[in-house]
Structures are given as structure tokens and as C-alpha cells.
# Entry
Amino acid sequence: MLTKRIIPCLDVKDGRVVKGINFVDLIDAGDPVECGLAYDKAGADELVFLDITASSDRRNIVTDMVRRVAETVFIPFTVGGGIRTVDDFRAILREGADKISVNSAAIDDPYLIDKAAEKFGSQCVVVAIDARRRRVGKAADPSLSYSESIKMNDEWKPSDGWTIYKNGGRLDMGIDAIEWAKKCEVLGAGEILLTSMDADGTKAGYDNELTRMVAENVNIPVIASGGAGTKEHFYETLTDGKADAALAASLFHFKELEISEVKKYLRDKGVPVRL
Amino acid sequence: MIAIIDYDAGNIKSVEKALQYLGCEAEITRDKDVIMNADHVILPGVGAFGDAMKKIRDYDLETVIKDYVATGKPFLGICLGLQLLFKESEESPGVIGLDLIPGKIKRIPDAEGLKIPQIGWNSLEIMPDKKLFKGVKQGSFVYFVHSYYLECDNEADVAATTFYSTKIHASVEHENIFACQFHPEKSSEAGLTILKNFISL
# Structure
């Protein structure tokens, strides 16, 4: 039976893992290879490396990291962050990455999805979507700051929908998230990595309304992201939210929750997992 | 030496890296002599059946593959590399494959709530005494990414099956030809054991 996937996400900057990984047996917690191996051993089904390097040399730094990870870690891994062209795809896939995730670049040029899928196959094109509940009522006042509007967005109903953001969540594109996900599928995306900006960082659970709406409207796998705080949250998004996989970062890095613990809980509740 | 056949089949680096990790000398090549002189040959692949067969023919690799297989030395197809060993695929009607084992490649049947492609870890039912699966536990999980699947004509050729919408022949063993629909090079411990079994043949 096909299992639901649990995916840790690692932020990397200048080829080093940032935000700390708290495995006791790690000699170098900043080394992507060592972190990747530790997560493989811990039962991760896949890995996502999100590159936040700002320097002009970023491509070389990333390809070098990918090469080293692919030499020792034998589970699938995705690389995202700053990938804008088919050449960027090629450079990273050539070193052994399995999938590439694109976000802002796909919004700027949706045909990048089509071109990359045509060249390398849909299976390696992951579209990352950052979505937030559409601001309504008082929260829609344009003079409000981002954080103020989030707090005031309490009159929201599912029918108000979600819009997508680019540039790391700073710019509201005004595009409906469900429509955008459907378009990504038509263009050839192989998976959707869906982050709820409302839930991200709250540890109060994934946005399962959003996740379910997207999952029901596309026929490609959806990875839920943002908001995981407990093992119940994983269960809810993989059942209620209809997600095919669930992603988390700090929760795993800081050992607040073990992947094996999450998986055992899921198995006991009847969710198929690889254990 | 292990030859990994290069016909522009996308991401084949990870197969090479897994073999090197296991201590083997591997070479990505489309050179006829290198392939014929190899002890083991792997046909990897990601993409569409029709395009892949066209490239194999453009690079003049069809005869090389068939000549190598005729030597009786071990040959392994991975993912699309498994599908190409059969005569035809619903993905590319009219295109003739390598036709080395009897069977058909079909589209995974649609079912309520089922996503296509199948992406992720699925469990294997392993047939008894299959060489690739020595030391691999019954029910082991391996990583799949595919929209089309194999249905062998002869049950005796089937080495392992999985279930996704329908029964899928996930691995075959036919004389010296072996193949996996899943990616052993991305299937953690279980996958590395399968590759190790292949290179020990």
C-alpha cells in the first residue's frame, strides 16, 4: 500500500544547515550531508533543502552541496530556493537531486513549469505555493501592516478563499490559491508543496481547509506545510486535509517530536506509513 | 566494471553514486565497447517510453543492448528502463520497445481519490528465491514514481509485486535480465541491498 510521507525541511545558507539540528550524535549539525543521513536513519521518507543563500555565487554553493548529499544519502530529496531557469534545473538535477521546487519563479513565468516538465519530466517539478486566507472586512484595510492584518482577519470564511504570495510571503499576488494549483498541474507540475502562511510557525496545526481544497482540486500529490506542533496535527492533515505528505522543520530539528513517534502514532490510527 | 547506459535519460547520476557508495566502479556511457566489456549493465531512465526508444535508436544502442543481453551477463533495468524491456506501452502507441521479455506496459487505472503518478514508498510482495531480493524482508518499502505499470505475460518472470489501484509487477527476473519499476538507488537500506545483490551476480 502506498504510504503517507513525512518530510523534514532543512534551511541551508552558504551550504550550511541553519536553524539548528538537535541530534545528539551529530558531530557537525551544520553539515547537510550529516543531517540528511541522520534523517534517513530517523525514518524520513524524503528531504527538502531550502536554499536561502543570498550571495552571487549561490549556484556553485548549491550544486556542490547537492553533489555531496547525493553521494551518501539514498532517499529522494528536493532542492528549492532561487531556482529561476531551466538551466538552474539542469545544474542541480545533474548533481543528483531528485526534484526541484519553484515558487516565485513559477509565478513570474508559469511556462517555466511547462519547460522544466518537458525537459526533465513532471516527477521532478514541485511547485511550492505560499497561501494565505484572503483578507476580508477590517483586515482588508490596505494601511494595515501584514501582522496587523493577520490578527484582524477573523471574519474569514472558507468561501473567501486564499491568495498566493511571492518573494517569501511578502507580496500578495491576488491570485486564488486553488486556481493557481490547478494551473500548475495543467502546466506539468508533479507535486504541490503547499504552505499556509497563516499556520506557519504557530504550531497550532496545518490549515486543513486549505490543504483539502487543493488536494480535492488537483490529481497530483499535495504536501502540507506550516503549523505542525503535535503528532495529532500530522494525522489531521493526512486524513481530514487529504494531504499525501506532511512537511515540518523546527519541530524535528529541535527534537520536539521524533519522526518515528509520529509514524507509530499514524500507524496505530490506521494511516499507512513506512516503518 | 558496471556500465550505466547513457541515452540522455534524465537524472542517472544517483544510480552511479549509489554504485560508488557500494564500492563499485561505474561508468556512464554510450560507447559500444565499454558496454560490451562491462560485467554488469544498467539501463536507467526517467521520461516517456516513445522518446526514450527514439533516443536509444538514435544513439544506435538497441543492438548493443541486445548483444550484451545475449552474452548472458547480468542486466538491470530501472524505472523506465524496466518498461523499455517490453514490446509496447500504452504511453506511446505504435512504438516498439526492446521486446526482450513478454508483457505489456499499461496506464495505472483511474480510481476514486487516486493520484497519478504514484509517488512515494510502497510495499513489496517478494516471490520466493529471487536473486535481487536476497536478504530483503517481505513487505519492504521502496520508492516509486510512475504513471504506467508492467503486466508480465508469464508469472514466472515476476520477482516482486506491489499494489496501487491494481496489481503491479514491480520487479522481474528473466534469465539474466533483471528490472525494477521502483528506484533502488532512492530506497534507503532495502534499495542498497537490492543493488548489492545485483552487483554480486
